[in-house]
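Field reference: sequence -> structure
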Amino acid sequence: MSDPLYINEIFSSIQGEGMLAGRRQIFVRLTECNLDCRYCDTVFVKTDSCRIETKPGSGTFHHLSQPLTLQTFLLLLHDWLLQLPSAHHSVSFTGGEPLLHADVLREWFPEIRKILPIHLETNGTLPVAMHKVKECVDYINMDMKLPSTAGCTEHLWDLHALFLRDCQGTDVSVKVVVGDGTTDGEISTVCDIMSSVDTSLPLFLQPLSLPGGRTGIAAATIFHLQELASSRLPDVRVIPQMHKLLGVL
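Structure field:
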């Protein structure tokens, strides 16, 4: 019997970031995080109920008591796939930081993966936890935290490097949130880390999103950063948060 999970919300939407941008996914937003990024707009504290869409993509929710069991989640997953056959590409586990729950996810992922592929969104700072679930994840979207945008006080570069090395052999991509304050040195360090592992890994530069749909970086700056990264890596893409542009969850 698998342990239950504390889940913030479950909903169906368009993936707006990284390699799977544009794909329809079932999102599972878990509670708790080990970082406190300046731009984060997500509430991820534990609550006594989980918010679940009444039907996929409806934008209306009902609540279930926490923590959720794997059996309850699998029933929901089967129901949504009956409602929308073939619409969903994968299940995206996000947060918070999902890898804080690695011991439970190691039990959940193989069962969910029998139905849909697993997409993991992570801040890339918990390499030991990643190792626990590595063999049962299909896609990894690693978010490297830049001091200029995330505002994290501790230097995370060494952890990011360890994490990315441990992801070798998986379908992993790297995303960095960039703003007008992002420096050439930060991008160079990202390229150093990625080059030390695999130069073919894709890098996604994600313009900082501000309230009201504005972007916190000038076009000239994003062009410059993309040119800098492209001089070191062969696959560098600029993708804003598409779901925010579309006005969906």
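Note: Residues 70-83 form the longest helix (14 residues).
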